[in-house]
Amino acid sequence: MSTISEITTVADWEKHISSLPPSTLLIVSFHAPWAAPCAQMATVLSTLASEYPVTEPLSTSWVSINAEDLSDISETYNVTAVPFLVLIRNGEVLETVSGSSAVKVRAAIESHANTGSTTVLASNGAGATSGVAEGGEATTVEDPEKKKEDLFKRLGELVKAAPVMLFMKGTPSEPKCGFSRQLVGILRDNAVKYGFFNILADDEVRQGLKEFADWPTFPQLWVDGELVGGLDIVKEELDNDADFLKAYSVKANGDASAVAAS
């Protein structure tokens, strides 16, 4: 049965993709070691991989990539949050799945791995599932209160995905608003190791976090699961205490940015 191989260098990645037959479905899982949802997704994908036999020629190939360590590859596939799944065949991206919904992941893989199969209807991904759902099951309409409860549970985990979490417009390398750009600059100036989430890539998180945090604007900075606030509040905190972010400084470790969980 198929297993998941970890790609650790760009050279390994290039060698792997060049070795695949054009017909092979390449399943690429981007992850970050500190993001709890990635551990869940690893279990989901291992279970799914075991359902696909190793064939000749190879029908599926399963690999995992640390999105932070191989940031060049992450940027190539627009990875803005983890876990993030990319399905590729013959160099063409067929589909991407962001988040930890096992139903979505299974549906995407089955729809492209099985020639002539019918695309499985996926759930809306409001909450992560802990197991692998059976493909082809009917999707039920969620109760609005249950959907909100699931979203808030997801947001509660998301704000704790890293000790310092920045919810911003765009990414640290390409901020989409001046306030986000300035806050990224403050974190870099203080050599803070942080996770980030591009709220423009997930409107559910963007809208839900406003209510969850009772804070209507972005960027938002969270520390140890607690909301600090926006740019003005962060500036004020640093004016009052220059060592406000010192505990999260990683000056010896180079790049301060990180990829956030979804």
TrEMBL record:
Top-level taxon in the UniProt lineage: Eukaryota
Domain Thioredoxin: 1-114
Keywords: Iron, Iron-sulfur, Metal-binding
InterPro entries per the UniProt record, alphabetical: Glutaredoxin (IPR002109), GRX_PICOT-like (IPR033658), Monothiol_GRX-rel (IPR004480), Thioredoxin-like_sf (IPR036249), Thioredoxin_domain (IPR013766)
Coiled coil: none
GO molecular function: 2 iron, 2 sulfur cluster binding; disulfide oxidoreductase activity; metal ion binding
Location of the region described as Disordered in the Swiss-Prot/TrEMBL record: 125-146
Biological process, per Gene Ontology: intracellular iron ion homeostasis
Pfam families the UniProt entry points to: Glutaredoxin (PF00462), Thioredoxin (PF00085)
CDD domains (UniProt xref): GRX_PICOT_like, TRX_PICOT
Family annotation (Gene3D superfamilies): Glutaredoxin (3.40.30.10)
One CC-aspect GO term: nucleus
Family: Belongs to the glutaredoxin family. Monothiol subfamily.
Function comment: Monothiol glutaredoxin involved in the biogenesis of iron-sulfur clusters. Binds one iron-sulfur cluster per dimer. The iron-sulfur cluster is bound between subunits, and is complexed by a bound glutathione and a cysteine residue from each subunit.
Name listed for the protein in its UniProt record: Thioredoxin-like protein
Lineage: Eukaryota, Fungi, Dikarya, Ascomycota, Pezizomycotina
